[in-house]
Amino acid sequence: MQENSNLFEKHSMYCYENEDVLKNNFDLHDNDSLAKKEAEICGNKLFVFNFVFNDIDPYKRIEDLKKYFDICKNYSEDLKKENEYVQTILKEIEKILDLLKVKSVFSFEVISMLNSYLLKDIYPFAGEKRWEDTTKYNITYCRASYISDQLERSFKQIKEKFNNLDIESIPSFLAETYSDLHIIHPFREGNTRALKMYMKLLMYKRNQIEESPCLIDYSSIEDNSMKKAIIVSDYTADTRLLENAFRDSLIRINKKKGQKK
User: Fold this and answer.
1) Which among 13, 47, 74, 213 is placed 20 to 30 Å from 87, CA to CA?
2) Tens digits of per-residue pLDDT, 61-102?
3) Residue 253: strand pairing partners
4) What is the pTM of this model?
């Protein structure tokens, strides 16, 4: 689904010639059909990702899902196909967790894998840095030629803040981090969704070293309020609405009892 329009060229290099439809793996040439296909695939992948990372132990969640669908596959052919699909998604999430073992969470490689996880079944350019300048809602995002430098600067600042993070400052940290990366808009598509996933990874890394773990549950935030907060942040660099949204989404966990507060 084409989210952005190109600011400096009449035709985007990402679109089919003489069309406003993004080149896609299904060779769909109308935006409605492409939007429907994207919503279906991304919806499934986001649902599984959010389920896995809505726990302080994502590995346990993965194993629980595998066992559940492995049992269900014996009941019908449809459930067997669904099991195979979910198992494939879970393997992709395991690759993300494996990457975090060898790569810093404060790196393009991590957000690139998130974007690829989400969109690689749809777009051939999933996970790649944006090659052209772009705008949306009259917001001009970072020039494509500056993306790498801006990401390096941002990740350095994010790491410094993360290393000095206390539990009360988490909402402001998440809001500032999200805002900073979103205005860079490193990808052609899926920036908003990939960065929301990235916030969950940041909390996962924090929970590995802190005694007061927190989770992000986006289901507790209305989509429109989050969207409004992001637009306001992009326009004005005012992150207060985003901070409120993240504060509403945070769940504190009693690590000893595994209870949510």
Assistant:
1) 213
2) 999 988 887 777 666 666 667 778 889 999 999 999 999 999
3) 260
4) 0.92
At residue 69, the 3 state secondary structure works out as: helix
Number of domains observed in the structure of the chain: 1
Three-state DSSP class for residue 135: strand
Q: How far apart are CA 119 and CA 103, in angstroms?
A: 21
Query: Domain range holding 246?
Result: 5-260
CB 138 within 8 A of CB 236: no
Q: Residue type at 132?
A: E
Q: The domain spanning residue 162 has which CATH number?
A: 1.10.3290.10
Model pLDDT for residues 176-187, shown as the tens digit of each residue: 999 999 999 999
Are the beta carbons of 232 and 241 closer than 8 angstroms?
A: yes
Beta bridge partners, 139, equal 136
Q: Which among 2, 1, 5, 240 is positioned nearest to 138, based on CA atoms? A: 5
The pairing of beta strand 214-216 with beta strand 5-6: unpaired
